[in-house]
Write a structure and sequence with these properties.
By secondary structure, the chain is α+β, with helices and mostly antiparallel strands. The protein contains six helices and seven strands.
Length: 219
């Protein structure tokens, strides 16, 4: 049976193209990149190649990515060389009485997301509003972190009202991607911020995958 929450899942899962674009961007690639590859040197058992990748219409703040590879040698692009790219995700689905008070919801968030930093927990609490007719509230943030890293975080809440049983089903949680690279994180942050709507759709795709699993588990 289709419900407002399962319909949102179906909507989120339509954003696969945006998700692929986002993953490529945070791994140091760019959409529709034209690559020119040339042989730099060649020995009996070793061929080194260098690709200079440029995106048409590249903004001035975007650095060109130069990727060096060598046959028989495992290397990383300069966007990944200094650390590990991370994905953090956590969402819950639960049912409350329809007259749920904001204070009770805030207590629930503090308890369920106790390992989350206070700033993001507060953002989660701010999204809760039973007086609105909307069944979704979303917040996205871009944060500079330690070690020249940049994070993109989607915080989201979905509401599903059941007036027959005076119940309120809630899905609340967050999806966070952190990219650590040798490049200045400001470049990636500016790139994401200039494409905020697309970043939201990309993170909602990931949220949709997790929510689908939760709904199946709780059914």
């Amino acid at each position: 049976m289709s419900t407002p929450m399962t319909k949102r899942v179906e909507e989120f899962l339509q954003h696969k193209q945006d998700y692929d674009w986002f993953i490529a961007s945070y791994k140091g690639q760019r959409e529709q990149v034209h690559c020119e590859e040339r042989v730099v040197s060649k020995t009996n058992s070793d061929v080194s190649t260098k690709r200079k990748c440029e995106e048409p219409g590249q903004n001035p703040y975007q650095k060109q990515a130069v990727v060096t590879t060598s046959l028989g040698v495992s290397t990383k692009s300069n966007f990944e060389a200094s650390g590990q790219d991370l994905c953090e995700e956590r969402l819950v689905v639960t049912t409350f009485p329809s007259n749920l008070a904001k204070a009770d919801f805030e207590e629930y968030v503090d308890r369920k997301f106790s390992n989350l930093d206070n700033n993001n927990r507060e953002k989660m609490k701010e999204l809760f509003n039973v007086d609105t007719n909307s069944d979704i509230q979303t917040y996205v943030s871009f944060d500079n972190e330690s070690n020249d890293a940049i994070g993109a975080t989607l915080t989201q809440i979905l509401l599903e009202r059941n007036n027959d049983y005076n119940e309120l089903k809630i899905s609340v949680g967050y999806i966070k991607f952190t990219s650590r690279s040798t490049c200045d994180s400001n470049y990636l942050r500016d790139y994401w911020q200039s494409n905020t709507e697309r970043v939201v759709k990309a993170l909602q795709y990931k949220y949709g995958l997790e929510l689908k699993n939760e709904l199946c588990y709780n059914s």
